[in-house]
């Protein structure tokens, strides 16, 4: 909250995904491709395969242009983007792992230098020295992965670092090793996939067939290795993280299914390439590459989504608020802001006092500070669309802000601020709704508009199974929702709405339980 807000109209998170997606796909090729170059050169020299060596020279140029030029530029683009969109998280990660970043930048410098010397050394250096440059490149690139992996996995599973704040505890966190093995297998698989692209344009069908088979033998075993490594990775992620991403906002679950599905498609396509290597065409090779890109981006979406609402799990929320008091947090914790207020804490606020005239304008400023990290007003994850769907009146909108942390399986940060600031934010949000709210009288619609954000719409939800069997008593209990659970929004429904809601909820009970609540024939006869 010490930084200005960069207003990205189509969504800050989507921009990061666009910038980082291709970079990650290329950077993993930079690691596996280095090993591919050295071992393929060694294989060609051993077999006196001059045609393969000539192809490898051209492939090296493609490799350097893609990884060193595009990879380096897009890497800088990631730093630029995250520095503007999430400056607090960027600053924290730099300060927590300052020496890790320092050594990574040394490895990166060695990596680039060795790659350029390897490219320039064809036909100028002895085969032994030339391969040494290749090995230096590979180990420097792999060392960069080793360091970056520790920082990325820390964001998802900081583990006991939250208590001790030690560098190595945070670096070798619970998902460090499974992630390193998983990503290493991806690197090797991509080396074979990228080889198909440059091999597909060859006129010599025999040479093309040899390279395609060689590339397939790099990729197919690596794809199979992703299964146990992926299972290991999932086992080390706290179960609550995956649980929080399921249900009403199952983004991680959907992308996990998509990732494994696209990996299966990649595997099948590589088998086709292995058994029909002479028929490899550039379009087919690019299709394999695009499917693999989709699989990898889906995995990255899962990794990003399961830790919501945090940038750094249990430490820093997406909106740059801290979950609990930590050294150097500047007092930007939820509890502190509930007392002091957002307007007197955030540095880039134009209006510090709320009046009847400026309430909506102040609410907009609070929206930018607390909500805009994930939502836009009218575009990506737009609040406008949500309010149009729910049709909340101003009182309901204000009440809902009290229960943000419970909505959608806990993927949103809690509101932090004083009651007048909550009122101001609610006033601004209500200006985004163009449809005049109409009180719902249908029980299902009442449930969807007011309850479904926190309660799953199936009979196993405790919200259904714990309803009082007496409809009138249940309706009366809904007069004061906070008496049922203190963190529930204090939504006010009239008596017909409460009755309709209870009637709908009773239809959602498990059949056996519903039958138990029906009066027996004997009881009916005795009345």
- The tally of helices reads 24
Which fold name corresponds to the CATH topology of the largest domain? Formate dehydrogenase/DMSO reductase fold
So, CATH architecture of the largest domain?
Up-down Bundle
* Beta strand %: under 5%
- Helices and strands, in N-to-C order? HHHHHHHHHHHHEEHHHHHHHHHHHH
What would the average pLDDT be, to the nearest integer?
Answer: 88
Span between N and C termini?
Answer: 67 Å
| Global structural class | mainly alpha
Shape: elongated
Q: Uncertain regions: pLDDT < 50 for 5+ in a row?
A: 519-527
Provide the CATH top-level class of the largest domain.
Mainly Alpha
Number of domains: 3
The total count of strands amounts to 2
So what's the oligomer here? single chain
Overview of this structure, please?
This protein folds into 3 domains: 12-317, Up-down Bundle (Formate dehydrogenase/DMSO reductase fold), CATH 1.20.1630; 334-431, Cytochrome Bc1 Complex, Chain D, domain 2, CATH 1.10.760; 443-517, no CATH class. The chain has helices at 12-46, 50-85, 87-96, 98-120, 127-156, 161-164, 167-171, 176-199, 205-236, 239-244, 251-275, 282-305, 334-340, 359-370, 383-390, 394-400, 419-431, 443-450, 462-465, 471-477, 481-484, 495-507, 511-516, 521-525, and strands spanning 310-312, 316-317. Strand 1 and strand 2 (316-317) form a beta hairpin. A two-stranded antiparallel ribbon has the order 1-2. It starts with 11 loop residues before the first helix and ends with a helix. It is 66% helix and 1% strand.
